[in-house]
Write a structure and sequence with these properties.
- The structure holds two protein chains of two kinds.
- Helix content of chain A is 48%, strand content 13%.
- Chain A is α/β, with parallel strands linked by helices.
- Chain A has a five-stranded parallel beta sheet with strand order 4-7-10-3-11.
- Chain A is globular and about 70 Å long.
- The longest helix of chain B is centred in the last third of the chain and has 32 residues.
- The chains are: A alpha/beta, B mainly alpha.
- Chains A and B meet through helix 3, helix 4 and strand 11 of A and helix 13 and helix 14 of B.
């Protein structure tokens, strides 16, 4: 396998086919799996026919159930949450499990145009032949409608309101009109849309009430529980290492230290609730913790000589923290002075490393 | 479903788990005028407060069984421990049904099925599915058997025995066993059926306490507090709706969602019917995914959050609580002998239009007319009797601002308006019933409570507080008794703060008493006592003022009170205080802070003119006195209206001299004290002070020889002022 990153439906093909083979539950039209099997795929659990089902999402089972139940209706699903709370991850796995593909995706940006939502043309062919099926370039959403699959729209709040408005008719009428071909494409059963939106972007391009009404909203929460987040971070980091085939595994106590640090800085108090901390303006998401752990492993492999050390971790941390400006580095420095200094084991080493790397 | 079972095989006798001495109450319980939720209340009659409630909702199987019995003319009775025996139980007197420890088998079973709590399990497996008799029995018995595998509480076993005995007694009476229906907790039923009842356990039944039973209204919010019992009390209104819809939970859920939509619209959210329809569909789909027969509370919450709430659970939570718990209060048929206190309470509440729902409600009373004064007295009586119903919010009803204001006491007399927050809860009725032992009317109960406090005694000040409590609660007899107790205590009381407090209380009574119409007390009795107290207090003052630094604050407060009273209350001998005050001010052995305070007070009261005050301040601050005492004096002095003081040129001049005379070493020693003294000054006061200092200095400028020295010494003074200024600027920065 030479691809850096395989889409979910390829990577977990074995799991999906095992689940499909054993799936006896009723399937909504156009679905590859029954809702129960989709839940099983996402939450993980008992192996099916000897194929272990890994947990794709570690967290509240009832949230996943709401997502699945929404997708079985004529409403689209909107996943909202802080950056790095696995919204896109969930969207990818949901479409992989239910539609068999997670590739029908439109990335929402300020430059996203209506053509990217509906269709555009191959202009060479258009000029040569006039409007024809051959000259039509369908958008992922149009393809999803024709094939009865899920389309994904990432970061919907970053798109302009014109584009958002164009989406309303797509979602309510479930059809796209192509006047040039005198054709109306109506969605096959099984079509739906999973959108993600960032709460930090709230107000950038606030969605209209009409658009909101086409969605059911599920807020993906920031993980509060230390063990739960630790599990997510180590598991996902391991996957990254095997995907990219670089990096070293960090000792368990270091990953625990990192997740503790993230959670404490995020909540603004230490775990024992005794010390008040300043918070960073950069988002300390679970995804960020994964990336810090991953890059500290690469640092250790490339430049170190005996495994991942607190020093590697600190160096990786600087890159993640300094995004929003040097103020945040001070916050972490302060954290090391007030909290890490007094703690035993790797904390002490973190404190020493922080003096070296976080100095002004 | 229970009724269906009864209709199929009609029993000839129905036995219900419930206190056996409450059997006579069954008639009232099923009276058409009685509207659940209601509760059987058992309470102790031996004078110790103590009670226990057995609540019934209209969907309770016990209630339905009793109702069926009445409709079909079948006798019914309760068979559990008597109230007296239950109350004698050592643990958990408030909840008769705590049988399961927190990590109960039920909770474990719920987790094993991927559900979050036992209540959810109960809802999913026993309430919602359209069980027929056989399948329900199978399900419930399996559950009950598993429950009994857990640790057993001895009393629960004893209750098995008691109930089994009652069943056998019924059989002995000639009822055929097949015609007796027993409605009891599943755990008990398993014991009856499996024959594991151990009659030896009867000995473990505690001996009964003297007690009585009655029926009180109950409310859904209280019902919903009893979690972990599994009778579906988590969302009583939802269950009520399901029950009314013939156990159609889907319909009940839809009703809840519609109500929620209404609620959201009223509170200004957009809530379209399309969202409601989607929420309903989503909740059913969720129930299906989870293998539940119909959506329960959790499905409704999650579905409503995803649709109506746009992902934000907080938006829907309040409306959902209203639609699933509500604030319904039950009603008990009039023919039950309500206790006299309950009758009085409900009569008053209705006549005065006070809140009678189980949700906090806020209202204000204007103490200008008799009706609202009486309402206030009624609420104060409840407060004194410690019946949980209303609590006092303050004069203006703004939380926070008047937080320190106590409901009774001196402040109560001067009030023209009172704000209360009242909420009826079953605890109110329970409180009323429990207090029947203290008297037949609220007035009697309040008086008894006051007398208990009176008997505990206390100093004159405490007794005077008591007197005021009696006055605001309109208890003339207690007031009279408190008044004479006050007089007796005053004769032996040497404590200045206590005397001053009592004096203020009596003076307040004399001035404001008329609004509360205390005819029986009479000014004739108060006046002389006030004089006596005042005189005693004033005469005690010089001696009391000789305290150390720690004891000074209460004495200072007392001196202030005396000063205010002397000036405000025409009945009192003003000169007595002024002369005594002057004596304190000139006494070098009293606490310097007290002396400073009194000096300031007398100056503001124009007892001292400018010259006299300057002389006194200069004297106190002169080099001859210890700097520590001088600083103390200054602190007390500036506590009084500082603006007047710093505006006075002679005073400032004396201050200035004092500071400039201090040696650097001494100045450093005194800096903390001085800081404290000057920190009481506000911004404009500081400005006046500086202006006056500068004015005083300009005179000094004319003597060039002294200038160099002055400037040198200025530095020290300015340093002190500067730190203050710096701090003031910091404060300002913080504000900006």
């Amino acid at each position: 396998m030479s691809e850096i990153r395989q889409p979910a439906e390829v990577k977990y093909a074995a799991e999906l086919s095992a689940l499909a083979a054993r799936d006896s539950g009723p399937k909504p039209p156009g679905w590859r799996l029954s809702p129960k099997a989709v839940e099983h795929y996402l939450i993980g659990g008992e192996p099916v026919d000897g194929v272990p089902i890994l947990a794709k999402y570690v967290g509240d089972r009832s949230l996943v159930q709401v997502m699945i139940a929404t997708l079985a209706s004529d409403r689209a699903l909107m996943l909202v949450g802080e950056p790095g709370t696995a919204k896109s991850w969930l969207s990818e796995h949901l479409s992989a499990a239910i539609s068999g593909t997670s590739a029908l995706v439109v990335q929402g940006t300020a430059g996203t145009s209506e053509e990217q939502l509906k269709y555009s043309w191959n202009y060479a062919l258009l000029l040569a032949e006039g409007p024809s099926q051959r000259a039509l370039v369908p958008s992922p959403i149009l393809r999803a409608m024709r094939e009865g699959k899920f389309a994904r729209l990432e970061e919907i709040t970053r798109t302009s309101s014109e584009v958002q408005d164009a989406l309303i008719s797509v979602l309510s009428e479930k059809q796209i009109v192509i006047p040039e071909l005198s054709e109306i494409v109506s969605a096959e059963r099984g079509f739906s849309l999973i959108a993600t939106a960032n709460t930090r972007d709230r107000g950038v391009n606030e969605m209209s009430a009409a658009l909101k009404r086409r969605f059911n909203f599920v807020t993906v929460p920031v993980v509060q529980d230390l063990e739960q987040e630790l599990k997510i971070v180590t598991q996902r980091e391991k996957e990254l290492r095997s995907d990219y085939q670089v990096g070293l595994e960090a000792p368990a106590e270091l990953s625990r230290l990192l997740v503790t640090l993230f959670q404490e800085l995020r909540s603004g108090t230490t775990k024992d609730g005794k010390t008040k901390l300043r918070s960073t303006s950069a988002v300390l998401s679970t995804a960020e913790a994964i990336s810090v752990l991953f890059s500290s492993g690469i640092l250790a492999q490339s430049f170190g000589n005996n495994g991942v050390t607190p020093e590697d971790l600190t160096r990786a941390l600087v890159g993640a923290i300094a995004k929003e400006g040097p103020e945040d580095l001070k916050v972490v420095r302060e954290y090391c002075e007030t909290v890490a200094k007094a703690r035993p084991g790797p904390w002490k080493a973190l404190y020493d490393a922080s003096k070296k790397h976080l100095a002004d | 479903m229970l009724r269906r079972a009864f209709d199929q095989t009609p029993p000839a006798l129905i036995l219900v788990e419930g206190p056996s001495d409450a059997t006579p109450l069954i008639e009232v319980l099923v009276d058409p005028e009685t509207r659940p939720p209601v509760a059987i209340l058992g309470y102790r009659t031996d004078g110790t407060p103590g009670s226990s409630a057995w609540p019934f909702a209209s969907y309770s199987p016990e209630y339905q069984a009793l109702l069926w019995a009445k409709e079909h003319g079948v006798p019914a009775r309760f068979i559990d421990l008597t109230v007296g025996q239950s109350l004698a139980r050592p643990k958990a007197p408030d909840d008769p049904e705590v049988e399961a420890p927190t990590e109960s088998p039920g909770a474990i079973a719920a987790q094993a099925r991927g559900l979050r709590s036992f209540d959810e399990l109960w809802e999913a497996y026993y309430e919602a599915p359209a069980h027929d008799e056989a399948s329900f029995n199978a399900a419930i018995m399996a559950y009950a058997a598993s429950l009994r595998e857990g640790p057993e509480l001895p009393l629960s076993l004893a209750r098995d025995a008691v109930m089994a005995q009652a069943i056998e007694a019924a059989i002995d009476e000639g009822h055929t066993p097949e015609a007796i229906a027993v409605v009891a907790g599943a755990a008990h039923v398993v014991a009856f059926l499996s024959g594991t009842v151990d009659f030896a356990r009867l000995r473990e039944v505690p001996s009964a306490l003297p007690s009585a039973v009655t029926l009180i209204p109950y409310s859904f919010p209280r019902l919903s507090e009893q979690l972990g019992y599994g009778a579906g009390n988590r969302a009583p209104l939802l269950y009520q709706k399901a029950h009314d819809a013939d156990t159609n939970f889907e319909r009940a859920g839809l009703e809840v969602l519609l109500e929620l939509t209404d609620h959201l619209r009223l509170s200004g959210f957009q809530a379209s019917l399309a969202d409601t329809i989607e929420a309903h569909r989503l909740s059913r789909m969720l129930a299906q995914i989870r293998g539940k027969a119909a959506p329960g509370l959790d499905e409704l919450r999650e579905a409503a959050t995803a649709t109506l709430g746009r992902g934000d659970p907080q938006v829907v939570e309040r409306g959902l609580v209203q639609a699933t718990i509500g604030k319904n209060v039950g009603q008990v048929a009039a023919r039950i002998g309500k206790s006299s206190l309950q009758e009085e309470f409900w009569r008053e509440v209705q006549a005065r239009r006070l809140p009678a729902t189980d949700a906090p409600e806020r209202f204000s009373l204007r103490l200008g007319n008799t009706l609202e004064i009486e309402s206030s007295s009624f609420l104060h009586r409840l407060r004194l009797a410690e019946v949980p119903y209303a609590h006092f919010l303050g004069r203006e009803g703004r939380r926070g601002k008047n937080e320190d204001e106590s409901p009774g006491g001196y402040a109560a007399l001067a009030r023209a308006k009172e704000t209360w927050e009242a909420q009826w809860t079953p605890a109110t009725d329970i409180g009323l019933v429990e207090r029947v032992v203290l008297g037949d009317t609220l007035e009697q109960v309040a008086e008894r409570c006051l007398e208990v406090r009176l008997a505990e005694g206390g100093d004159t000040g405490a007794l005077a507080e008591l007197l005021l409590d009696a006055v605001v609660a309109a208890c003339p007899r207690s007031a009279a008794r408190a008044l004479s107790a006050c007089g007796v205590a005053a004769a032996n009381d040497d404590d200045l703060p206590s005397l001053a407090k009592a004096t203020r209380a009596l003076s307040g009574l004399l001035s404001f008493g008329s609004t509360r119409a205390q005819s029986s007390l009479g000014e004739a009795a108060i006046g002389p006592l006030l004089q006596t107290l005042y005189t005693r207090a004033v005469l005690r003052a010089p001696a009391a003022a000789r305290v150390d630094e720690q004891g000074a604050p209460p004495i200072k407060a007392a001196l202030r009170i005396l000063h205010e009273l002397a000036l405000a209350q025409s009945e009192l001998d003003q000169d007595l205080w002024l002369d005594t005050g002057a004596q304190i001010a000139d006494d070098w052995s009293v606490n310097p802070t007290c002396a400073g305070l009194v000096t300031g007070l007398l100056y503001v009261a124009q007892r001292y003119d400018e010259a006299a005050i300057a002389e006194r301040v200069a004297l106190r601050l002169s080099l001859g006195s210890e700097p520590e005492r001088a600083a103390g004096f200054l602190e007390g002095f500036l506590e009084v209206n500082a603006l007047v003081l710093v505006k006075s040129k002679p005073v400032v001049k004396a201050l200035d001299q004092f500071l400039t005379q201090l040696e650097v070493g001494l100045f450093k020693d005194q800096l903390p004290l001085l800081r404290r003294a000057f920190s009481q000054l506000g911004k404009s006061e500081r400005r006046y002070l500086l202006e006056n200092v500068l004015a005083a200095r300009r005179l000094g400028d004319q003597a060039p020889a002294a200038k160099a020295i002055l400037v040198e010494k200025d530095r020290a003074t300015l340093a002190a002022v500067n730190t203050e200024l710096a701090q003031a600027l910091d404060d300002l920065d913080d504000l900006l």
